Give the backbone structure.
Amino acid sequence: MERTIKTLTGAVLVAGMLGFGAGAAQAQCAAASHTVAAGETVFTISELYYGEIEQWSLIFYSNPGALSNPLEIPEGTLLTIPCPVDGGAFVADATPLQVENAEMKLVTGGNYAPFTDRAWPGQGMITELINAAMEATPNPVTYSVTWEDDWSRHLFPMLDSKEFDMGFPWFRPDCEATPNHERCVNFHFSEPIVELLGLLFVQNGSPLTFEQDSDLHGKTLCRPAGYFTFDLDGPDRQWLQRGLVSLTQPATPADCFNLLMAGEVDAVALNEFTGWTTLTDLNLRDKVAPLPNPLGVQGLHVIISKRHWRGTTHLYRINAGLAALKSSARYDEIVSRHLGVFWDRVN
């Protein structure tokens, strides 16, 4: 195993390796580089650098596109290992291009922490990444961000009628496999802003394993009503179409975990952020945990109507800004800050 670490002092390496408090390590820490050895997973690497497995998401989200499966990382992959972050010392970046009467009008919604939420530092991880991408693009323009917490209004009528130019963040269905999906028919998608892991949360001690899709055949999963299901029903799975897996859809994530604890479902299928936040709110973190193998990876995107007359220009501007941002240290810094806040809150 090869590890190349740039630090200001030798003591910093010890602090990070032994899992000392984030604040102590952050004061002097600089990002590390890690070349993956055979058999390593993002969990073992997290334990190596941070002293605990839970912080693996810091590594996953700081290496966009490199970790489609955290259990199977190709040997020789070069990963960025971000410093642990003190979530209590968060300072959001300035937004000099964000003005009211702007050339580009964006719409998003709240109550989606840590991604978009007015009460979250920086108004959320995705919001801050979009702000940074708009500055990093080769041809920056002024823009505005409007908050509409009724997400059902975003696509239709707001974006479809071009009341707003673009919206964020939205999941992209598998448009190649399902070209008639409503979102695929009507909207273009940017490159992913971030990619989220879908996890299966089970009761501690559950005999359920997930090494291959057939392990879930005959099982009952829970995911709230209104959440997407295309990851369960894609052409490679067709779990729902073929009746291989049953899906229960109550109103909220909390309802799903209550059904899990009552033994009425085998697993709860959610992204890790929604899952961990709900477990914390319900005081179930000592009773429920995710299985290590992810259910899948889904990107969050900026979306624009296919009938927008400036669609190509706007998409280029967003994609070029995201590419420039991801190639810089600023992307990792923003993601790490928000993950620091997230883990501080759930812990």
